[in-house]
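Bump. Still looking for Calcineurin-like phosphoesterase domain-containing protein C-alpha cells.
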Amino acid sequence: MRCWRRLAAAGALLASLCAALALAVAEHRRPDTTASSSSRRPLRFASGGGFKVALFADLHYGENAWTDWGPRQDAGSDRVMAAVLDAEKPDFVVYLGDLVTANNLGIPNASLYWDRAISPTRGRGIPWATVFGNHDDMPFEWPPEWFSPAGVPPLHCPPPSMSDSDCSFRGTPRLELMTSEVIRNGLSYSSNGPKDLWPAVSNYVLQVLSQKRDDPALLMYFLDSGGGSYPEVISSAQVQWFHSQSQFLNPNGRISEIIFWHIPSTAYAKVAPKAKSEIRKPCVGSINKEEVAPQEAEWGMMDALVKRASVKAIFVGHNHGLDWCCPHEKLWLCFARHTGYGGYGNWPRGARVIEISEQPFSIQSWIRMEDGTTHSDISLSS
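Sorry for the wait, here they are.
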C-alpha cells in the first residue's frame, strides 16, 4: 500500500487516504450478448430448483472519508452485508448502485472503496454483479471547511515517482471502476457493456441455467440509469439494446425475465403510495418516508418492459426511505432496502432478498434486516 495524498486544512481533521498502487489498466472486455466468460462458471438453479439473490443498495462507501465518522459508517455497512449473507446464504448478489460516494473521495482510485464494498461477498465465495448509481462516479466536491484563511486548501502531492496527474481530484470514471472489478475478480459477473451505449456502462444480461439442462430458465438484465457524470436517464439507445437482446435470447417470451437498475423510472412515481402514508395492498413494504425521486426523463424503457409478459419485476435503489413493491401493469416495481450506513436517513438497514423457483416458476421476496428479522414477504409471480 502507498499513500496517494494527505488531505488537510486549517481547522480540519488531518486524515490519510491510502491506496493500492495505480489501477491496472486492461483492454476493455468485448461487449458480448451476455456478460459471460469462459473462466466463469454458468449460473444455474440449485438441485432443489431455487436461485436466491440478495440485493445490496446504496452502500455509499467513502462518505466523509476524511473524518472519523465516515470510516465508522463503512464498518457499519460491512456488518449489514455480513449479517445478511450469513443468514440468507444467497446464490448470487446484486450491488444495486451507489457502492461509493465518489464526490467525497479525494483520491484518483475510488476502486479501493469499491473493492471494500464487494469484499464481504467475495470473501464468502458468492458470485455477484454490479450496476452504477448516481454517486459512483460523481466529481469530487471540496468541503468548504478545508479551505485555509488564505482561501487555498493545502495539497500534498504523492512522491516524485508518481505522475503529476495524481495531484488532481479527478475521481474515477465508470469504465475504470468496472474494468478494475472485472479483471481482478473471478466471481464478478459484471460487464462494461457495449461501447455504443457508453457513457452508460453497466448494461448486460446474465442467464441462469435450468437445474437439469443447459438451457436458460431465467434472464437477468442490468442497466445503467445514469447520474454522476451524465444525466439520470435510461436512453433510447439502451431501449433498442434491450429490444435486440431480448429478441435474440428470448424471442417467444418463454423465459422469465427480471430487471435491475439504480434510479427508479417515472412509473414508480405513478404507482407510489402517498409519501409518509401507510403502505396498503396491493403494495407491500415497511417504510414509505419520502417521495419517489425518479429519472429525469422516460425514453421508452417502461413501454418496452410492460409489453413483455416475460418481464416479472424491476428492482431499484436510490430512495433510502422506501422499500415497497407495487404492481404496474402486469409486472412489479420494487425498491431494495437501504443497506449501507453511508448516505442519508437513519432507518434500520437491511437488504431485499429474492428467491426464484424454477418449477413451477415463482418469485418470492422479503427484506432481511441487520438484526436478523425479516418482513414484507411478497409473491412477485402473479
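Residues 60-141+167-379 form a domain with the Purple Acid Phosphatase; chain A, domain 2 fold (CATH 3.60.21.10).

Edit: fixed formatting.
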